[in-house]
Specification:
Layout: H1 12-18, H2 22-32, H3 35-39, H4 46-53, H5 57-69, E1 73-75, E2 81-83, H6 85-90, H7 100-103, H8 106-114, H9 117-123, H10 133-143, H11 148-161, E3 169-173, H12 179-186, E4 192-197, H13 199-211, E5 218-222, E6 234-240, H14 243-261, E7 262-271, H15 283-295, H16 304-314, E8 317-322, E9 330-334
Parallel strand pairs: 3-4, 3-6, 4-5, 6-7
Antiparallel strand pairs: 1-2, 7-9, 8-9
Helix pairs in contact: 2-5, 4-5, 10-13, 11-12, 14-16
The structure holds S-adenosylmethionine.
Length: 340
């Protein structure tokens, strides 16, 4: 009897990962030197890109070819470089789907902390914790607008999913840029949003809301999530990418507090990087858990079942997922009506 021959084991993947820190840094250099923006008007040679960006021809030659190898650019017979469909949609700073904001922080805000990972794994403690106001305010002040494009399509999906009663009074918790409240407020002039975050970050929220000309629909509550007074009778509460930095105990307390701030029949909507129940995937959510190890005291990523259990414990019913663009589906649940 013959056994099917297994594919030979090679060190190829390990060699690729040995250089895995390079692609985001190449992307950052290209973004900071406006390479994708300059190519948006059409294909260009190295010297043409040099004339517009003033970056060195040697430096540009190296990163342009690396970006061709990574399929973020194409190169034609006369040596001109052009955008691919992906880089045209997501790496040109004037495009609505621009994702380059996060990449711009790699060398100064993201990678430096990961360089301490050996030490952090030994102690189980972050070097700086972004879930604490002192470090977190400054970090998120820089960061929240750059992650706006990650959640805007999902926030628009939520706005389309909820009927006009369900999205009338929004409680946008850990509002950041205000992306969740903004998408809901755009769906109707009747929508009113209460945005909660640390004071320094709310100054960014206010500016972003003003840029969307929605200031008249917003009010703002400054403070820590477990201390601030959320008010009452909100019809929907959004928790966009906050549970992962709060950790299990604070997340459970936050869900219980949110339950009390909602009107009967109200909806809670949670955006997270969800993991499979046995924590074997998906890779992005597992890597994000390492990011929480590096950046927070107690943060992690969770499964739908785990968050669903906390929602039930807080009094919510009908925990469910809503397919939406983004790393994972949204989690929704309902506060029961009094007459049930
Ligand atoms: C990852 S950002 C998410 C922002 C926005 N909800 C989104 O989905 O893009 C986390 C936000 O939570 C805020 N935040 C974190 N911990 C907080 C706390 N304990 N109290 C108040 N705000 C907090 C940060 O300032 C930041 O704006």
């Amino acid at each position: 009897m013959t056994t099917p021959s297994a594919a030979p084991v090679t060190p190829e993947r390990i060699m690729q990962f040995a250089w895995g820190y390079v692609p985001p840094l190449v992307l950052e250099a290209a973004i900071r030197h406006r390479v994708f923006d300059v190519l948006d008007s059409g294909p260009k040679t190295v010297s043409e890109i040099h004339k517009e960006t003033h970056a060195s021809e040697r430096g540009l030659t190296a990163i342009l070819h690396a970006l061709v190898g990574l399929n973020f650019l194409a190169k034609d017979d006369r040596g001109a470089f052009s955008l691919t469909a992906e880089s045209a949609a997501f790496l040109v700073s004037t495009k609505p789907g621009y994702q380059g904001g996060v990449i711009r922080h790699c060398s100064e805000q993201l990678i430096p902390k990961f360089l301490r990972l050996n030490e952090i794994v030994a102690t189980g403690k972050p070097v700086e914790a972004v879930n604490q106001e002192a470090d977190g305010s400054a970090f998120f002040h820089e960061f929240v607008n750059d992650i706006f494009p990650m959640s805007y399509p999902a926030a628009q999906t939520l706005a389309r999913h909820l009927d006009s009663n369900a999205r009338a009074r929004v409680l946008d918790l850990a509002a950041g840029s205000g992306v969740w409240g903004i998408a809901l407020a755009q769906s109707s002039e009747q929508v009113r949003v209460t945005a909660v975050d640390w004071p320094e970050v709310l100054s960014v929220t206010r500016k972003t809301v003003a840029r969307f000309q929605l200031t008249g629909q917003f009010s703002f509550i400054e403070g820590d999530l477990l201390q601030a007074d959320f008010g009452k009778d909100h019809t929907v509460a959004t928790l966009g990418h906050i549970l992962h930095s709060e950790g299990r105990e604070r997340s459970r307390a936050l869900l219980a507090k949110t339950f009390h701030a909602l009107a009967p029949g109200g909806t809670i909507a949670i955006a997270e990087f969800l993991v499979a129940p046995d924590r074997t995937g998906p890779p992005l959510s597992l890597l994000f858990a390492v990011n929480m190890l590096v950046n927070t005291d107690d943060g992690d990523t969770y499964s739908f079942a785990e968050i669903g259990g906390w929602l039930t414990e807080a009094g919510f019913i009908d925990a469910r997922t809503l397919d939406s663009p983004g790393p994972s589906p949204l989690i929704l649940a309902t506060k029961p009506r009094l007459d049930r």
